[in-house]
Amino acid sequence: xxxxxxxxxxxxxxxxxxxxxxxxxxxxxxxxxxxxxxxxxxxxxxxxxxxxxxxxxxxxxxxxxxxxxxxxxxxxxxxxxxxxxxxxxxxxxxxxxxxxxxxxxxxxxxxxxxxxxxxxxxxxxxxxxxxxxxxxxxxxxxxxxxxxxxxxxxxxxxxxxxxxxxxxxxxxxxxxxxxxxxxxxxxxxxxxxxxxxxxxxxxxxxxxxxxxxxxxxxxxxxxxxxxxxxxxxxxxxxxxxxxxxxxxxxxxxxxxxxxxxxxxxxxxxxxxxxxxxxxxxxxxxxxxxxxxxxxxxxxxxxxxxxxxxxxxxxxxxxxxxxxxxxxxxxxxxxxxxxxxxxxxxxxxxxxxxxxxxxxxxxxxxxxxxxxxxxxxxxxxxxxxxxxxxxxxxxxxxxxxxxxxxxxxxxxxxxxxxxxxxxxxxxxxxxxxxxxxxxxxxxxxxxxxxxxxxxxxxxxxxxxxxxxxxxxxxxxxxxxxxxxxxxxxxxxxxxxxxxxxxxxxxxxxxxxxxxxxxxxxxxxxxxxxxxxxxxxxxxxxxxxxxxxxxxxxxxxxxxxxxxxxxxxxxxxxxxxxxx
Length: 578
Prior knowledge:
Blueprint: H1 2-54, H2 58-65, H3 71-83, H4 104-113, H5 117-125, H6 136-145, H7 161-174, E1 179-182, E2 188-192, E3 198-200, H8 210-213, E4 224-227, H9 231-241, E5 246-252, E6 258-263, H10 265-270, H11 275-278, H12 288-297, H13 302-308, E7 314-317, E8 320-323, H14 334-340, H15 343-353, H16 355-364, E9 367-368, E10 391-393, H17 400-407, E11 413-414, H18 417-428, E12 432-433, E13 439-443, E14 451-452, E15 459-460, H19 464-480, E16 494-502, E17 506-515, E18 522-531, H20 534-557, H21 568-572
Parallel strand pairs: 1-4, 9-10
Antiparallel strand pairs: 1-2, 2-3, 4-13, 5-6, 5-18, 7-8, 10-11, 12-15, 13-14, 16-17, 17-18
Helix pairs in contact: 1-2, 1-3, 2-3, 5-6, 6-7, 9-20, 12-15, 12-16, 14-19, 15-17
């Protein structure tokens, strides 16, 4: 037995040693696995906390980081305090690299989006040399928004949108601009210095902003403004004119905002840079919209009245005749009368309404009377600001002929291009008038913090039923009347046209309308002036209006930007090196 025991003892010893070794290895392996799992869990929590911080959820990030130990977690908790505005940015360790769970560039973007520009500057001042180039654009954004000067490379030709924007704004500031102007979508227009002089950006050199600049005095305290103007709509209006003498005005139907007001160079130089509010000419047949409204308000059975009295080319008045060049004969109600633009029909309607009723209706649409100079009865000085909307009656109506001419928009009344577009907008808005809006929002220099300015309250000009009935007739004008074929197929509009002549000024037309007809977004006026004949002015107006409406349809069909403009925070995300 002893021999056997002696023989087995070494084998048992070796087995025990092997077992102990195996157990030790297993324990160490299990410990290592647990460590790896814990580390992976910790890393996942850190990364998730960083993602929550980038989304602005500092409370969610804090809940993940609070039970976690280590320098990274402590750094994350410091960021939570800063993002929650509970502590100053100086409490965060210096920005070193951007590859830890809390990417500084992403967090700085978040602070830019929240308008915390001073915090961004403080963090940038505390950044290391390694990360400074990566956050340079964000630092410049914050400094410009705070009104601080930044150094830029004027010779740089970067294609990065944010860097280009920073360079342009910095150069405007260096050139003396105290306020940066943008269009309604946030696109840069230029700057205004302390004397009110406009300094355009390279993409806006052809814009005439005189009318806007005269109306922004109350907003001087803000480093930036978003005007109501739309750069793209202004450009397409200017291209539509293509050298023709005239003006195009575009309004936002919903707010009254002046989106575009473009005149040709000769009109600007020879008459006024703000011809769209200063140039007063006869409305001509667009005034028949007012006459139709007056007849409906007076309770006339307007369709029966029109059918009962065919047009034979003349309407007899006490001191002669009012002539109609159309001579359409029998007309089938208001739609056809407005579409054919029959003078005698509307002269007769005006006579039925009477002098007082017609004058009252003009006043409802914003026309001042000749006896009321305080409200615009006197012509303003050339280039002066218009009181009210820019329309007036030149003299007191005394004769039947003068009443007939008032009913068809000749001789007595006059209207500005802006007022003409507003006339169309009333019918697009079911009888409501929105006063013109010139500034959409206050903003910072780089357009990152727009704050909308509430538009003026609308006033009721017409009862909805009256406005809707006239609007139906305006659609007939565009479908088969004097404006037929001007709008592109698939883009229905509602319109009214008018042609007149004034001594020494040649022939002019006013074409007004709104688009699209079923759901109006834009009201417009196209005015063509200084043509030698009625035929030539109408032909020019048809070409210009057709070109304009085709461009408007393309613009309207494109994806629309947000109401207050481009998302400039998205530009921040495109900064170089990020």
